Please model this.
Amino acid sequence: MASEEAGSANMTEYIQHHLHHLQWSIGDGALKINIDTLLFTLLTGLVFLFLLGRVSRRATSGVPGKLQCMIEMIVLFVDGLVKETFHGKSKLIAPLALTIFCLVFLMNFMDLVPVDLLPWLWASGHTLVGADPAHAYLRVVPTADLNTTLAMALTVFLLIQYFGVTSKGAGHFFGEFVSAPFHASGPLGKIVLAVPNLILRLIEEAVRPISLSLRLFGNMYAGELIFILIAVLTLGASLAHFSTWVLGGAQIIAGFAWLAFHILIITLQAFIFMMLTIVYLSMAVESH
Model:
């Protein structure tokens, strides 16, 4: 009984340790910055710039290399989606959509790194410098942090307002807040319907960043947690027990199965975030 309780405590501690951010507290600790989220967001951004910069400098009109071919396919795919979906005129939409798709995919891709690899290296570094490895916290998936997804969603929200104002004018854009979706011909009807129109429009605008951020965060957090739970199967197990080998085999099968499925999820979530951004910006420039 005592060994079962100790094993349960170890599992709980293991999960909590993996879900704890490397943080920097400011002042009395009321404000905390997730250093690991910022670090891996910056890292994936630099990888994105490096890959596209390298391909653009070495691009050839002859037979392209594998990397150039892959980048060209992604660029053409995104460009086609923008032409089909965005009904306004802007040279910013296609680069923006490409950046969102690639950056979100790369941040999601960090979830495919073995769950204990980078935290183990980080803890080993703590041990080498004489620090306590028990406090060596590190989370490597930026999109599993609500701060990241909410920041990206709020940026898209601000872009929606910017494109709406610049394409229609401030008067027309904000006038739609009280004149759509319900329309009235007479002055009295417009006044009566202004309040429900405003309420519905405010709800619509508020739902966009919330749905964008929570959808991406929820999927990536759940994916990260499942990888951790798979790793827990053989936590503290002894090679002398037959059950260890059974659980080890189940762990390998479950890990590969979830890895294959999760590749689809991280790609799909990057696509959805990009696609909804294009759709929302297109709706912002269209007149009701």
About this structure: The chain has a mean pLDDT of 88. The first strand starts at residue 23 and ends at 26.
